[in-house]
Amino acid sequence: MSQSGHTTTQAAVVTRFAPSPTGFLHIGGARTALFNWLYAKSVGGVMRLRIEDTDRSRSTTEAIAAILDSLSWLGLDHDGETVFQSQRADRHAEVAHQLLADGKAYKCYATPDELTQMREDARAAGKPPRYDGRWRDRPASDAPEGAPFAVRIKAPTDGLTVVHDQVQGEVKTPNKDLDDFIILRSDGTPTYMLAVVVDDHDMGVTHVIRGDDHLTNAARQSVIYDALGWDRPVFAHIPLIHGPDGAKLSKRHGAVGAEAYRADGFLPDTMRNYLARLGWAHGDDEIFSTEQAIEWFGFDGMGKSAARFDVKKLTALNAHYMRELSIDAFQSAFNASLPYLPNKDKLPNPFEGDAKARFETALPGLRERARTLVELIDSAAFLFAQRPLAMDEKAATLLTDEARGHLAALHGLYGALEAWTVEPLEAATKAYAEQAEIKLGAVAQPLRAALTGSKTSPGIYDVLIALGREESLARIGDQTQP
Fold this sequence. Notes:
By secondary structure, this protein is mostly helical. It is about 45% helix and about 10% strand. Strands 1-2-3 form a 3-stranded parallel β-sheet. Helix 3 packs across helix 5 (about 190-200) and helix 15 packs across helix 18 (about 460-480).
């Protein structure tokens, strides 16, 4: 057994992520994909992708594209071809008819009116509305000629169906509660329960890791596995994600789709780290690399209670990654996100052409202060602003007549410098403040306003270096004119 509690032969593990393409990739779905990906990586296995698009009225090609795009952004790659459940209906029906032939399922001719009456009678008797098994043991000769039928599984009628869940423990379901559920509808289409089992089996899935809202499905799916004589997969039902108030995560808590967090300027490294901590832990570690998560990941670190999604914590973690990522990794993440950022038009592509040197020079200071890529663009916009700069309200208040006099003096001092580097710029600025008998801030603050149009920016000498001699002197000169 490894330190993560794995007992599985490494090459044998196959996990899967199986979203329904009826909208964006929900943040809960992203976390499920991550857990499947991490577990497969941690034991040298593979993760497969299946699009469960059997609801043709709600499934869209746009949603499929959005899900694939979000998975790509998060860095969650899958192995093998993507499987589309809708293309496998014939295989699902084939298995249903195999169960019929083996006597493990039967044809049910109950009409919609009969089923409605059945439910009403059960409710009147104070019982849960379940199918009463009226066609389970009737001879084929009783079948109405040419009438449509559904195929129902012959579920066990007594005892328990036990699911050994890696997170929830031993989950026991009385078989009397399962009833003979439908596996093939009267129009010949498979139900979700049958399709999932057949697809997981045919894809070689060994571990089903999904939200605990599917826990009730595990017992029914186990009945199908057992009827077919197939090995059940290892089940692991992870807790759902709630908002900071403890209620199920919803739109009222803010963004709930992965692509929304990309548009808000969060980094994929941040999302992987934060989502991994929602329902899983490795001691007290809060910040860890993806490589560490793969090394540590296991079922023993998963909790049973719902995790709480806190945007404030996510933002603080993103600020860490904004500062700590290598410049190459940061540039890669920035370029991948730039087309989706709402304020992208504030700057040209900063890693191309003439903008590259200016942006890269300012980047260390920009990264120190920004919590998201959106904030970074806002704070970097001054680099590419056209002269004369538009001043924000706070910056304008700094540019008094006295301040403009200081700027005129600095313009002359800076223009005479032989080298445009931090040391001589800093020395000239401090020498002027001492000579004028003013605090350094009385010079630096209007200088920042003149250079950036704002009261906040990276360090003033970083700004001067990033803008360069010509642009810096031109901007300062603009503010010394009457």
